UniProtKB/TrEMBL annotation:
Region (Disordered): 398-417
Keywords, sorted A to Z: Disulfide bond, Glycosidase, Hydrolase, Signal
EC number(s) stated in the UniProt entry for this protein: 3.2.1.35
Protein's UniProt name: Hyaluronidase
Gene3D superfamilies linked: Aldolase class I (3.20.20.70)
Broad enzyme group: hydrolase
The UniProt record lists the keyword Hydrolase: yes
GO molecular function terms listed in the Swiss-Prot or TrEMBL record: hyalurononglucosaminidase activity
Similarity-based family: Belongs to the glycosyl hydrolase 56 family.
Length: 474
């Protein structure tokens, strides 16, 4: 149910969404390459039968448990995304920065990848399953490029510093700001790379964000055009960056919420959201881990309500059965944390969850047996306490073979690349800086900001209140 408080002038605040049982279906998808377990020798144990176990638990899976199949596919940076991700030099790949990339060639390659039956990112024409775009090279909101993504900040600031006109304009603006504060401006050695002021961020956003927006918008548009039946969406969005080692606040910061509000252009461009609720164990209390998951799903609901997408957009957060431990020893979520995660997702009206795992988690017979036992002994009783939707999986239907390539791609080559991504994410868990950046919350303006946003939102709320009142007296 949505909690709404209305005050003077019919200004309402949506408190959040909490569903009673039965209000929304809750479907769990399996995106772990457990087909690889068939390759191992099991000398003292029975080969785990994941397909039968998952079917029994009403978890949707690909045919024979393949990582790539008719129910679920992840596309790893399809096309020619400009990126600094896999290149330690400052040239990057495909231009490195969004505004240096070639969007036309990217879209052409994107189409070629999707149509090429032997390509890792191939999608059959009649595909109706989940299609997740895993593009983690950069974030379209310039300020949010932190952690290893800080290279984008560095490069754009250097670009500004080389542009005498831009830099002088920023210096002039900074001088005026300092004078208003009755401070003596010292602009002699000022650079954006060194000082990183609000003015620098504002100019950098105007350089970085327009093409970042175009790359993301036109890519999803092209993919929906090519495979209109697929359930397209970007991995990771919306972001929240709550519960960090230096900040244990449950809710997303007001700055991040504002940035999410102004990313409406992205969230309304596709109907399936695939954010992440991976949790860490290090120095986080039980309460911290609950706040991490709850704070994020509250933000997903807030955005879905804000953009009036409640009946249109479905949200399937990614869940990892292991703690995000900076690539150290693999430790499974304890029963309490797993139960908390899935129960919170269901109670806060998520449409389901994607259980994810990588090849490293199933690369030995011992790991496969451990995972099987964990699902059977820990996940099974948790699911029995939740009203999980009956699986509509086609995984036991041999006719799906018509969707496959002559040479079936089983996901080989994915795990190493994704492993790098996970290692990066683990090293900067929820990587967004606090400190200096938090000062931007009152003065920094992203190019994605819209001057009409508040008006649109208030009009939308007023309209909804009118409908509520009208229905009461009808």
């Amino acid at each position: 149910m949505n909690g709404i408080i209305c005050g003077f002038g019919a200004l309402c605040v949506v408190l959040g969404s909490f569903a009673a049982d039965g209000e929304r279906n809750f479907t769990i998808y399996w995106n772990v390459p457990t087909d690889q377990c068939n390759k191992h020798n099991y000398t003292n144990a029975t080969k785990p039968d994941f397909a039968s176990l998952l079917k029994n638990l009403s978890i949707v899976q690909n045919f024979k448990g393949t990582f790539i199949g008719e129910e679920f596919r992840i596309l790893y940076s399809p096309g020619l995304w400009p990126s600094m991700e896999h290149n330690k030099t400052e040239n990057g790949t495909h231009g490195g920065l969004p505004h240096r990339g070639n969007l036309t060639k990217h879209l052409e390659q994107l189409e070629a990848d999707i149509k090429n039956c032997s390509h890792i990112n191939y999608i059959p024409e009649n595909f109706t399953g989940m299609a997740v775009i895993d593009m983690e090279s950069w974030r379209p909101v310039f300020r949010q490029n932190t952690g290893w993504m800080g290279i984008y900040r560095k490069l754009v600031f250097q670009e500004i510093d080389r542009n005498e006109t831009l830099l002088n304009e920023i210096k002039k603006n900074e001088t005026e700001i300092m004078k208003k504060k009755n401070k003596n401006p010292k602009m002699l050695n000022f650079t954006c790379l060194k000082n990183r002021t609000n003015s620098c961020f504002k100019v950098a956003a105007k350089i970085f964000e327009p093409m970042a927006i175009r790359f993301m918008n036109e890519s999803i548009s092209k993919l929906k055009e090519l495979r209109p039946q697929a359930k397209w969406g970007y991995y990771g969005f919306p972001y929240c960056f709550n519960i960090r080692k230096d900040n244990r606040t449950e809710d997303c910061s007001s700055l991040v919420q504002r940035e999410n509000n102004n990313t409406e252009w992205l969230f309304t461009s596709y109907e399936h959201w695939y954010p992440s609720v991976y949790i860490s164990h290090d120095n986080f209390t039980v309460d911290d881990r609950l706040k991490l998951v709850r704070g994020r799903v509250k933000e997903y609901n807030r955005l879905r309500d804000t953009f009036n997408l409640t009946d249109k957009t479905k949200i399937y957060p990614y869940v990892w059965l292991l703690y995000n431990l900076d690539n150290r020893t693999e430790v499974y979520l304890n029963g309490s944390d797993l139960n908390m995660t899935l129960t919170t997702l269901k109670n806060y009206t998520m449409d389901g969850a994607v259980i994810w795992g990588m090849s490293q988690n199933v690369n030995t017979s011992g790991k496969c047996t451990a995972l099987f036992n964990y699902v059977n002994e820990t996940l099974r009783p948790i699911l029995s306490g939740l009203k999980i939707s009956q699986s509509e999986s086609k995984a036991d239907n041999e006719t799906i073979a018509s969707q496959k390539c002559p040479k079936n791609t089983t996901g080989k080559g994915i795990s190493t690349r994704k492993k790098r991504s996970i290692e990066r994410d683990a090293k900067c868990l929820n990587c967004i800086n606090v400190g200096p950046d938090e000062k931007l919350s009152t003065t920094y303006t992203s190019i994605t900001d819209s001057s009409t946003y508040v008006v649109k939102y208030l009009l939308k709320i007023t309209y909804n209140v009118f409908l509520l009142v009208f229905n009461q007296y009808e």
